[in-house]
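A quick aside before the break. I want you to see a complete sequence-to-structure record at least once, exactly as it would be stored in a machine-readable document. Don't worry about memorizing anything.
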Amino acid sequence: MAILRPQSEAFQRDQVSRLISWGHWFTFFNILLALVISGRYILANPWPETQLGVAYLILSWLGHFSFVGFIAYLLTLFPLSFVIPNQKLMRNCSVVIAVVILTVLLLDTQIYHVFKFHINPTVWDLLLKETQSKSELNWNFLFIVIPVLFVLELVISNYTWKMQQRRRKRVWGKVISSVLVSCFLLTHLTYIIADAKLYEPVIAQRANFPLSYPMTARSFLAKHGWLDLEQYRSKAAQVAEINSGKLRLIYPLEPLQVTEPENKFNILLVVVSGLRADMLQPDVMPFLSDFAGKNQQFMQHIAGDNMHEGSLFSLFYGLPEAYRTNFDMEGVAPLLIDELQRQDYTLSAFSSYGLNQNIYRKGIFHGVRQISRRKADLSAHSDQQTINGWQNWLARQTSERPWFSYLNITMPSTLAVPADYQGPFQPELVDSNPFAAFTPENHDKFINRYKNAVRYSDEQLQGIISTLREHQLADNTIVIITADRGLEFNETNTNSWGSGSNYSTYQMSVPFVVSWPGKKAQRYNNLTTHYDLTPTLLHDALGVENDDKSYSSGNNLFGGEQHDWLLLGNRQRYVIYEPNTITEFNRQGDFSIFTRKNYQSLDDSRPNMAVLLQVMNELSRFKDAD
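That is the input. The structure line, written in tokens, reads:
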């Protein structure tokens, strides 16, 4: 036994040596496979505009995946070579490991191709827990690819084992290794220089590949006097400003195909600021309740945001407010307004807030040829003045051209009820001190004040519809009555008053009533949102034949397609409304989940990952990749 032990140890050392040698070649061929698969990242991104950018792309592609492959070898195959001396078992384990790693790479390429981000813990949770969702992701290809990978890995395993058994010295193996190592080092050296120079064709590629963390050396360069950090920050701000001005919108996704109707309806859109959905009841709004019952009423309608301008953006553009920065930069008006102009509609707009807000000047009515621009319309004024201005405008219209008119009254949000108006809800708060409204003893009085403001607006709505009837326009006019957002009176017990503080139904659920000539009275109980107005008017009133999703996040209200969930919110916070929950995300990825019924926090709940992926897709569908 004393003689056999050294022989056994020598045999074991030789076997381990063979496995390590085999592992090197097995890893090399898997690096080549990874390079082929990772070519999808290159195809998913715009081609660099300069030769140096192209050179960096190739260097980083070769260097990064070679380095990742080598690290994967060190963490898996190399230690296993000592633990599993049986070469057949070791090779089989290695095949399984390689297939798993390459499958994860394939998954990441698929996710990146659609959403432009890589697998992270949140997405990994989706892959482990969720089945295929309604997003653009498609995993069916894995049923073909994984078996093919297994066959390839078995072929590579057998081939490389025979290679190392020949024990021939191959100089070209060292040459290839040297080239790949050089690519890795040159990648980081190039990025250090490009980062210091803010060379965009290179630094724009920093997140192209998974697990990619290009090296920077600003502190080191500054310490040796090779980089002025103040000058660098100033130049970085300038570069960011230049980049932000680049065209980044594809809107619509395809040119509109339109068959104009022979008989065009007039369109009146009335937005009552601050009007909650639960105010639409006979004792508070007798006129609108009766009007809704005789027309089309949407019972579960949700505003696009909890703020005035964000909600109006969603209403006119049919898209999340997260896109607003891009639209403002490009000065792109809503497709709805453009098509109304193209079809020779007369346009008018009246708002008690005034038309000098950015949402009107830079967004909704940007580039409108003819619209009311009188000074009286630009500044804030009373609801009665707003309605008087609209009535005077309507009296001047003829039947030669159809018209679109936007009318925004604000009484429920301002609570500026005329002093001589005696509402039915008493006692009401009359103290002008805003802090007095938030005291417990004044809570009910505050709500009465709000209800009286709503009642006053209801009477104004009755006057608007009466004006249409007096001009014999009611039978030829589509009327939409809704709100920008609701107001909360601390029903959530979060010290929330008014709007903009949370995304509870108190602030987000608003009335949505449509009077469409020729359509029967009906109540709709499905989930709807402001995004739905644009595709409804474009398709049913203006004859646009494109699919709704080619220009909007909404659905035609009368098209039969329903929402399973809604994406709401703005540039700072994304909100997902589902049948029972409200999920809120900020830009840092932090999330909170609340019950939809009473806005109670669900601390142990997790987001619906399938919906989250669809949300990420919806936030990028209309952005140019360039």
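Two observations worth writing down. Residues 130-135 have pLDDT under 50 and may be disordered. The first strand starts at residue 266 and ends at 272. We'll return to this after the break.
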